[in-house]
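Checked the freezer inventory, then went back to the computational side. Two predictions to log before the end of the day. The first one is the construct we discussed on Monday; recording sequence and C-alpha cells without edits.
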Amino acid sequence: MITIRPNLLFACAALLTLAGCETGSREADSGEATYAGAADLGSFCDRLPRPKWAAFDKHAASNDWFEVYEIEPGIFSIYEPWQWQEVISWLIVGTDAALLFDTGNGIGDIGAVVAELTKLPVTAINSHSHFDHIGGNHRFDRILSVSMPFSLERAAGFQTEELLAEVSPDALCRPLPGDLEAAEHRVRPYTISGKLEDGDSIDLGGRRLEVVLIPGHTPDAIALLDREAGFLWSGDSFYEGPIWLFAPETDLEAYRTSVARLAELAEGLTAVFPAHNTPVADPQLLLELQEKLDLVLTGQIEPEAVGDGAVEFTFPGFSLLMREDYYRINTDQAGSMKLCCTRRL
C-alpha cells in the first residue's frame, strides 16, 4: 500500500492531427448532442458550454483558462474548455494529502489552481503519458508513475509539430493565457519520484484509491478506483466522445483486455470520471464500450472514413477513432486472437 502523508517524500507518441474531418455532432439516446465526431476542430467552440456542466457550480478557483467544479465533496474537476482537447484533470483531496490525476495541457498554470484548492501536499499521477495529460507535471515535486519505457521517454520533455498545433488558432476558443507564446509551447521535463504497480493502494486519509493498470490506449494507461464510493477515474480509456485509438503506441488487443476489466467493475460503480469533455459518465457505458468494441474488432461493424487515414465507429455516447489499416482482430483456426491490418475502404 502507498500512503500519501505530509512528511513522506517519494523517491521513486506524438498524436496525429486530424483537422478537417467531415463529421457532424453525434447525439445520445436522450437526443442531447453530447460531442462532435472525430476531432471536428471547426465547430468545437460552438458546443460550449456542454450541457452536463450545468449541473455543477463553478468554483471560485476558476480563472481565464481553467474552469473548476467540485463534483463530489473533495473531488474537483479542473477543466480546460477553451482548447479543443477539452481535457479534465482531477484533484482528489483527503484529510492528510491530495492527489492530482493528470496535469493538463501545460498551457495554463495548473499548479496555481491546485494551490488555491488545497494546502495539503499534492502528488501528481498521470492516467497516461500523452501530452495533454502531462503538460503541467513540471510544476509538481512528487510524481508517481508506472514508469514504463513510454512514460520515461516522455518525462524527458519534447516539442513537436503536433504539439505546436495544439496552441494554433484553430485549436483555441480564446487567446492563450498570460505571457505564453505559441512557439514556446512544449512539454517541459519532469522527474518521476516513485513507481506505481497494478493494484497499489493509495491512502489520502479518509479516501483510499486503487491503481488499475489498463494498457491499450497507451502502454502506461491506468485508472483510479475508489471501491468504497464506487468512483472510477477512467483517463482516456473511456470518455464521452471520440476515443482516440490511432496513435503508434496504441495496442488494440491490450485495449480490448483492459476494457473487459473496466466492464467487470461497472456493477460496483456509481460514477465514472473521464479525462475529456464531460465530468461524469454512466458506468453502464463501460458495458456498452465492451460490447461495441468486440463487434468492431471482429469485423461486424463497418466504419466511416473521416480523413487523414482514420476511420470512426459511432455509437450513442461515444465513438472509436482508429487507423484505417488497424481496427480488426481475426480469429485463426486454433481459436486464438491476432490483430489484423486491413485496408477495406
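The second is the one RB wanted added to the comparison set:
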Amino acid sequence: MIRTHQASRWVMGAAGAAAVGAAVIAGAVSPAPARVSAATSIVGAGSTFDLPFFNKTFPIYDKSNGVSVNYQGIGSGGGIKQFTNNTVDFGATDVPMNASELALAGKTGSSVVQIPVALGGIAIAYNLPEVGNKVLKLDATTLVNIFLGKVTKWNDPSIKALNPALSLPDLAILTIHRSDASGTNYITTNYLSSVSSTWSTSIGTGKSVQWPSNSEGGKGNPGVSAAIKQHSGAIGYVELAYALDNHIPFAQLKNRDGAYLFPNQSTVKAAAAQFPHVSYKNFSIVNAPGKMSYPIAGYSWALLRQQPRNNAQALVKLFRWTVSTGQMYASGLNYVALPSNVQKQAQSALNGIK
C-alpha cells in the first residue's frame, strides 16, 4: 500500500504565486457584538457532495473564530477550474486533481495540497410509487444494465428476480445522471467500471462521461434529486444526504460479498475501513470487500495552495478545525466522520502550507 503518513504524499509541486480574487461574501453569520476586528472572509467553490456539510460547519466555525466562508456548490469540475484560475481561496472535489490538472494549476500558482474533508455514500435513488415503503434490491449487473439502457422497464425479469415480493409496474425506466463535471460522477462510474468490463470499455470512469442517449441530465446533486422527484420511473445517483433530505427512496445494493445494504453510517464506515491508506493518488474505496461494506462510497477533498497569497493562516486554521472538531457534525448530516488516521494525515499535509 502507498504510505500516506507524511505530508509529501498529499502535496504536488508547482511553482509560482497564486493571485486570489476578492469576492462578495453572502449569507455570512454576523460578528458577535464583543468582536472588535472585522471578520476574515474566505471564498471556496466546488463539490455539491460537500455542500450540506460545509453549510452546517462553516457558520459554526465563524461564530467562534470570526472567519466567514462563502462556499458555492458548483460541482467538482467547476471547483477545480475556479481554484486553478485563482478566483477562490480553496476548491473542493470528490476526486483529487489528476496529473494534467495539477500541471495546469502549476502554471497559475504554487504547489497544490489536497486533503480529505468529508466521507459519504452515494445512494441509488428512484421514483417508484408502486413500491411504497418496501425495499427495492439491485445487484451490480442489473444496475449497470439499467444505466446502459439495456434494462428499460421496471418489470424487467432481471429486476423481478431480485425482488420477488414486489409488484413492479410495466413502467419505463428513466435514468438521471449528472450533467456537470462531477466527483459524484467519478465515484459512481468508478464503481460501475469496477464491476463491469462492458461499462469500463464503453463508458469508462470520469468526472464527465458520455452517457447513453436515453439518459437525462441534472446539474449538481440538487438537480439530479429534483429530476428524480419529478419523473415517475426515474432512477439516479446522489450523495446520501440529498436523498434523505428530499425524502427520495433508495435501493439496497448487493456488495461484492453478496450482502444487500443501504448506504448509512455503518456501511460507509465499514467500506472506508478496508482502505486505511488513502491518498490523492490512491483514493478509490468503491466495491470494497467485507459483508458490511456499502459499495459506492468516497472521500471528498479540499484543494489549497502551499503558498496562498491571501488568508494563509486563516485557511490552515479553518481546515485544521474542519478535519478534526468539525467532524463531530458529520453523522448528524448523514456523512461519516473521517477515520482518525485520515484526520492525522490531513493535519500533517496542512503543516506544509506557509
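For RB: Residues 1-37 have pLDDT under 50 and may be disordered. The CA atoms of residues 105 and 228 lie 36 Å apart. Let me know if you want it refolded.
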